[in-house]
Amino acid sequence: MEKRIITFIVALAFTAGVFFIPANVQATNIYKGVDVYEYSNISDYQQLKNSGVSVVIQKASEGMTYNDSLLSYRASMLPQYGFKVGYYHFATNNGQPVAQAQHFLNQIQGLHLDTILWLDIENQPNWTKSQAIDFTNKFIGYVQGRGYKIGVYTGLSFYYEYLSGNIGNVPIWLASYGKQPVQYPDAASWQYTAAGTVAGMVGDVDRDYFNDSIFTGVIPTKELTTLQKQICALQYQLNNDYNAKLLCDGIAGRNTSAALQGIEPLITKGHKSHVVLWLQQKLVMYGYLKEGSYKPMTYDEPTFQAVTNLQKNWGRATSGVLGLDTWSIFLNN
What we know:
Shape: elongated
Radius of gyration: 23 Å
Number of helices: 11
CATH class of the largest domain: Alpha Beta
Low-confidence stretches: 2-27
Number of domains: 2
CATH architecture of the largest domain: Alpha-Beta Barrel
Strand order of the largest sheet: 4-6-8-9-10-11-12-14
Order of helices and strands: EEEEEHEEHEHEHEHEEEEHEHHHHH
Helix content: 25-40%
Number of strands: 15
């Protein structure tokens, strides 16, 4: 937020040869917003509202002792102009998440509140992965235990490297400048710039697109298609076998393609992995491989032959090599 950032894991099971993945998420509405702190200059509240901004998230506190000097003033002013108002706490790595949560709640006590509360945790050099996970979960747990709903704001890289799959199922708000996160709009709100402009504010502005979860604290669900479940299962196994760090979202985008391209030299005869098992199950579904004819998880001769037959029928080079041209068959059918 004020410190610039350049910067769900899913469980799965194979049941009766079918790929099973829990439901994905789907947002219903998008709200234009800004997030501010004491050095953000709101020059005209009415102009800001007329610009289409409907949500303002105000900094409340940082660490154990710091309080934003404009918190109370803006908590009073913003509702007068019809803004939906929320508050965030900027985390510092002092090993005391509960004390920081207490400090945060003390500052927002009695203030007008429309959205869930937010924990802002960022800047990888200041945290180890275990510290970030422990702090986030304890902070969330304390706030929830006091009857509040809460979400997490962070940078895209911090989320992938530290938090993804390691924190509770709470709304996520991701900072990613110049690149739309794959999680948006279904699974996350998005801070898309830290250098925006908007009528009614002076200087660089943090601009955001928020989904419904900022009000409900609940991530709406939507069932994935069968193919999306299969892709989600593949993403999970790429993470499991090759530490690919993919979001298991059922979308075969650039990151998934890059991960598959990276393991192309590895999957030769005799190679063993859960990804090979995924491949074998798809080949069985297509009718190129018979159950009981192959060794599960092993790229054996029957699996190799099934791949070459598939490649021949789809006009690919019959090499048995799993390049992106061959993976595209599995990812689109």
